[in-house]
Amino acid sequence: MSFGRFLLKRVLQGVLVVWGVITAVFLLRFITPGNPVDFVAPLDASQELRQQIAAELGLDQPLYIQYFEYLFGLLQGDMGYSYLSGQEASVIVFNRLPATVELAVAATIVAVVLSIPLGVISATRRHQPADYGATTFSLLGISTPNFWLGIMLLLVLSVQFDVFPVGRRGIPFVDAFTLLLQGNVSGMQLWLSHIALPAITLGTYFTALITRLTRSGMLDELGKSYVRAARAKGIPETLVRYRHALRNTLIPVITVVGLQLGTLIGGAVITEQVFNWPGLGLEVIGAVNARDWPILQGSLIVIGIGFVLVNIVVDALYAYLDPRVVD
Amino acid sequence: MSERNSVEETADSASATTDGRTDSRSDLLRVRDLSTRFFTEEGQVNAVESVSFDVRDGEILGIVGESGSGKSVTALSLIDLVESPGRVTSGQVWYRNPDLAEEFPDAADGEFVDLRELPTRVRRTLRGPSFSMIFQDPMSSFNPSITVGEQIAEAVEVQRRANANPRSTRSRTQGYGLGRFILDGVVPNRDYTDPESSRRAVELLEQVGIPDPEQRADEYPHQFSGGMLQRAMIAQALAGEPDVLIADEPTTALDVTIQAQILNLLRDLQDERNMSIVMITHDLGVIARMCDRVCVMYAGEVVERGTLADVFDRPVHPYTEGLLGSIPDLDDPAPRLQPIEGNVPSLLDSEMGDRCYFADRCPKAMSECLTHPPEFDAAGSEEHRARCVLADHDYDPSEALPEDFFGGGSPAETGVTSTDQQAEDGATSEVSQDD
Amino acid sequence: MVSPRTVRNLKREWRDNWLAKVGVVLVVAMVLVAVFAPFIAPYNPRSQSLDDNRLPPMGFSKTENQTSSEFVDGEAQVVSEEVTINATWDHPLGTNQLGQDMLSRVIYGARTSLLVGFFGTLFAMLIGVPIGLVAGYSRGRVDDALMRFADVMLAFPSLVLAVALVGLWGRATFRIPDPFVALGLAPGMPGSVVIPGTVIAVVALVTWVWFARVARGEALSVREEEYVKAARSLGASDRFVVWKHVLPNSLTPILVLGTIQIAAIILLESALSFLGFSGTTLSWGFDIAQGRDDLATAWWVATIPGLAIVLTVIGINLVGDWLRDALDPGLGGEGGSGA
Predict the structure, then answer these.
(1) Domain ranges of chain B
(2) Which residues of C touch A26 (CB under 8 A)?
(3) Do C27 and C9 share a structural domain?
(4) Among B73, B181, B223, the residue to mutate for chain A (most A Cβ within 10 A)
(5) E strand or H helix that includes residue A87
(6) How many CA atoms are closer than 13 Å to the CA of B374, on its beta-carbon side?
């Protein structure tokens, strides 16, 4: 099987999963107690008005008709109308999406940049201070609730020492980047100063997780025969470590990272809450509390699609690193 | 022994007769009192204990013994590949290399340098052009995620770069690090190896008899059969044109029919290139077929060494006799093979005691075997030596140890309780026969 | 199932790995604290004493501007003076905004965390393991259906799904009487243990997929073992084979995953209660949320319950590492779905 066919197969599987996600989200409303009309209609609404609202929401139709209407609506980018906010749900969801993506990407960059060298150093200097430092850090990192870490960072760096601003997004990355292109770095500085704490908060768990996986994977790989054989043929130790051992270490690491992406997105929800970061996560919590179904459903579907997309990328990376997968 | 014709004799040994042939070759390696220990949590393991032997130009030296006798660790010690918690603790490995001797007079004795006295980085540069090694299991000795051709090209590339910039630290590290790894991964058509090296890799594959080398070079190890992959590993080991090729059980993992092909290949290559081979095996058939001289190892020691004829026709050490007794002889099939009773002993320092390590399994153990024997000269060629009192005088039944001297009739216990990693997988004598 | 070799490995890891001991000590201590909370806690964690609000923990003090009215020369004047408030042994970990004793709240919080962690994991296991075993053993359609369903489940981050489900389904709790208080052994303590039922159910619903995946993988590989083939060729029923061979051989990885999942679920529970999606106020996450609004004046209200979470989760993770190293179930980093 060629790489292209492998990718095609993965994409088709992804489409199937997205369909499942949409169906599950659609059905969520029907396994939830309470009538959606209650949350839209005024408390003293007459029976007539309530029926009118139900008709407008399409609730008087049979289930399968509602389902197909929802599905076709989604295909056209229509997530429904949010009566509570008086806007199209898709407008709100896509307005909020960039902030979450920025946060998640920044956290991933923090995690990958820190964790892989840390894991490699830890494995190659086993039982030395650097290793103890890295293992202690990673144990703490996977054991600390990220919302509490965020609060502690705020407490020390914002409240006590005023190094970073207290929460809120300073400026969208796109705007900061546009300013940078015009030769103005202040936008980028503002963006960085605002995203630093949330990104560290969200990235810590992942940094710790990948450090642990990289360390144990490297130790495994460095003990394998092919590493000894590589040394025997005289190639430099750095080449043995990075070109041989690290490459094979990353294969299982990537799988786990793909599986744990949900944790990253879940972490984003709560990080947004701590830092008042106006992303999808904050929106989901608001929508749950207000029973704003179109926004809740739209957000969940967007999160699900995001997860599926990133996993396709992860699988492609996996296949690139491990030729045995494609065969 | 004379079945090995002297076809490969070179100018400097042309006058040698078959019997004196080995004598006329000069030493390439002189290993003296080499000891390697593992410092494990259970205690100190004496994997290799005061081992001495020579490797000569263009010969095949066999090292034979059961699993756990220290033969593989001896090989790894030669090229400085012993891994933590193991360490070469004493001894010298003299390697004949006038250039190095000139450069490092402190470590030199005439044309020879003691590898253990050389700086680590210099010692490492010798892997490839001086020493190379092939391993037992070709499948696990190749990186599964890199093509075979690329891995061989890597070995070529290292030598190419080293030659372009002889023996400087820079040329060995070659500026390769994490950054370079990521860059190579991200930027297409950018790699460590040069196309020139890849071409050379294909040539090498062809030389070891792999059909369609060009195509196979682009395949991954899992697409190769065991025999083909072992050929590829040999090709890889030849990339640096080594003086000494160490072959650690090169045929153990292979089918019997493939074994013979690989042995023939090794012998042909050795003839062509006049390199020396150290052949490590538990298979006496391989030894008989391939080697000029033999070292028999037991419990980390060389217990008997000499020419092939010395060891096979005039064995002195009861252990060697036992090994030979466990091979079926087609001319005179005995009703039963004679196994060596008991197991490989523990190599834990605390459990070893100061006696002949074989005494507990030896049918001819005497009271004097309770002190550790030195190496005696033995009958046969000049270099026949054995670490056994029987080389000095004959067996005296009146001095024999009582049968249950070593704890009841089950000497096997010592082997089973052994915590040494290597002894563990060699729970039984596994000296096998030739095909 | 538990072979002598396994026991030996456990012992060796125990002897050589002092971290395992730290982990077990932490976990045992937390369990004891949770069980005997009514005896250990100095105060009822719910009783308020507004006069004693925001007292600092031992070793710290705080300064506060106190204003009072005084009559000076017959005229009322507002006097503001700086007062230093020192910690007292009455409240070693200080008090929160309502004057509730932090130590008592942390002790009672352990009950909620461990209850949800343990029962959430147990229910997730009870759902996931049978489904996984059956799917892996029977393969074919059942297996395909399960794997596709698992893919869909995994596409929702467990925290997001949990927030949605708890938020939509309500925060139902049920109460059982605290036996120690009912017997009159600990007067003045809360009379009942609040069990956040919805949270436990939801947490199990969003994490069982991990157990199903591992059980399926084990079933797939055990199925191919010679002794299972032999049993089948002798005419053993599928039910017998699953029960006698597949399940016992899958227990090790499931046990290790279960340990790690307890830690993950404790983190998940604390996140839920931090966001306000919990049925009880006696929860570390809830206290952190309270303290978060008061960082500048009472930093300890948010800090101390967080430390309790970290200690508990570290303990469980260390035990998990110990089991993993000793039993070597080959899980890699599969397990765990932290918040």
Answers:
(1) 1-128+280-435, 131-241
(2) none
(3) yes
(4) B181
(5) strand A87-88
(6) 3
Strand B276-281 relative to strand B112-114, pairing: unpaired
CA distance B307 to chain A (A): 28
Q: Which residue of C has its CA nearest to A260?
A: C337
Secondary structure in 3-state letters for chain B: CCCCCHHHCCHHHCCCCCCCHHHHCCEEEEEEEEEEEEEECCEEEEEEEEEEEEEECCCEEEEECCCCCCHHHHHHHHCCCCCCCEEEEEEEEEEECHHHHHHCHHHEECCEEEHHHCCHHHHHHCECCCEEEECCCHHHHCCCCCCHHHHHHHHHHHHHHHHHCCCCHHHHHCCCCHHHHHHHHHCCCCCCCCHHHHHHHHHHHHHCCCCCHHHHCCCCHHHCCHHHHHHHHHHHHHCCCCCEEEEECCCCCCCHHHHHHHHHHHHHHHHHHCCEEEEEECEHHHHHHHCCEEEEEECCEEEEEEEHHHHHHCCCCHHHHHHHHCCCCCCCCCCCCCCCCCCCCCCEHHHHCCCCCCHHHCCCCEHHHHCCCCCEECCCCCCCEECCHHHCCCCCHHHECCCCCCCCCCCHHHHHCCCCHHHHCCCCCCCECCC
- Regarding pTM above 0.95, the answer is no
* Residue C215 and residue C312 in one domain: yes
- Which residues of chain A make contact with B180, given a CB cutoff of 8 A? 242
Give the architecture-level CATH label for domain A97-326. Answer: Orthogonal Bundle (1.10)
Let me know whether C231 and C100 are in one domain.
Answer: yes
Minimum mean pLDDT among A166-180, C17-31, C274-288: which range? A166-180
User: CB B155 to CB A235 under 8 A?
Assistant: yes
The residues that bridge with B432 in the sheet, in sequence order, are: B283
Integer CA distances (angstroms), B223 to B78, B142, B202, B258, in order: 32, 12, 17, 17
> Contact A238/B158, CB-based, under 8 Å?
no
Touching C (3+ Cβ pairs <8 A), the chains are A
| Residue C337 maps to a domain | no
Of A21, A270, A303, the CB nearest to C339: A270
ipTM of this predicted structure: 0.89
Rounded CA separation A147/C180 (Å): 34
pLDDT digits (tens, 9 = 90+) for B334-378: 556 666 777 767 778 777 778 888 888 888 888 888 888 888 888
- Indicate the number of domains in chain C: 2
Q: Which residues of B345-366 are buried (b: 16+ CB within 10 A; e: fewer)?
A: bbbbeebbeebbbbbbbbebbb
- Neighbours, chain A (3 or more CB pairs < 8 A): B, C
Task: Please tell me the distance from the alpha carbon of residue B44 to that of residue C3, in angstroms, as a whole number.
Answer: 29
CATH code at position C38: 1.10.3720.10
> Residues C50, C70: one domain?
no
**Contacting residues for C100 by C-beta, under 8 A, at least 6 apart:** C43, C45, C46, C47, C48, C49
> Which residue of chain A has the CA closest to C318?
A139
Please indicate, yes or no, if residue C219 is contained in any of the structural domains.
Answer: yes
Q: What's the distance, Cα to Cα, between the start and end of chain C in Å? A: 33
Please say if the pLDDT value at position B252 is more than 50: yes
Q: Each residue of B85-100: pLDDT tens digit?
A: 888 999 999 999 888 8
Q: In the beta sheet, which residues pair with residue B54? A: B30
CB pairs under 8 A between A and B: 112
pLDDT of B10 > 50? The answer is: no
Closest-CA residue of A relative to B124 is A234
Contacts of A267 in chain C (CB under 8 A): 159, 339
- Omega prior to B195 cis, within 30 of 0: no
Question: Is B1-128+280-435 in CATH node 3.40.50.300?
Answer: yes
